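Lab notebook, bench 4. The sequencing result for the construct came back, and we need a structural model before the next group meeting so we can plan mutations. Quick request posted to the team channel:

Model the 3D structure of this chain.
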Amino acid sequence: NSDSINKSFEVSCQYYSNVKMLNSFRLARQCMPNAFQQRQLFGWLNIIWNRVDQSRVKDLGPDKACAEWLLRCGAHVKWVQRPSWTTDYNSLPTGSREELKIEEINAEDSCIMGIGFEHLKNLTDVKKIVFKHCIYLDNDALEKLHYVSKSLMHLKIISCGGITDHGVLSLVELKNLKVLVLYDLPSVENRESCLNVLKKELFNTQIKFPYATVDDADKELDEKN
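Done. Here's the predicted structure in C-alpha cell form:
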C-alpha cells in the first residue's frame, strides 16, 4: 500500500546526507503517478543499498562493512561484549576491526536482498539472526547463510513471503544451530516435508515450524478445539 511504499522510501533516503539529492528523490516520487513506478524506484534504491563495496570491506574490515550494509537497509546489529544495539547508520561505534565483531542481527522490516549477503563473508562471531517482514528476502539469501554457519546458533524467519521450500531446505547446512524458528512463510508449499528433512539433518537443533501461513494456523487451532 501507499503507506508502506512511503515508509520504504523514507528509510532508503534517510542516509543521504546531501539535501539536494534527497530532494531530487522526493521530487521523483511526486512525479510518479502510480505505485508500480514508485516500487521500481525503490527496488533500484534497494539494489544500491545492498551492493557490496569491496573498498569498504578492505578499509573497515568485514564486520563493520557488513554493519554499514545492514544499517543502510534498516536492520540493527549488536556487537560482541557491547550490550546495546546499533540502530542508526550515523552511530556506528569506533574501534579496530579486531574489537568490533557482529554478534546479533535483527533484520525486521528491513530491505536486505540476497545480493547483500555476500557481506557475511569472513564474519566469525554471528550467533543470532532474526528475519521478520523482509519483503526482499529470498532463497538465494538463505543459501548464503553458510558464510556464518560455524558460529550461527539461533535463527528466526518470520513472515517472509519470498521464501519457498527450496530456501527452507537450504538451512540443513547450518549444522551448529541450536534453535530454528520458522513461521508464516506463505510460499512454502509442503511444510511437513520440509520439517521432516530439517529434523533429520539438524538433529541437535530445536526446530519450531508449526505452520506455513496464518490461515493454516487458524485451521490447525480449529481442528484441536
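Residues 9-26, 221-225 have pLDDT under 50 and may be disordered.
Will bring this to the meeting.
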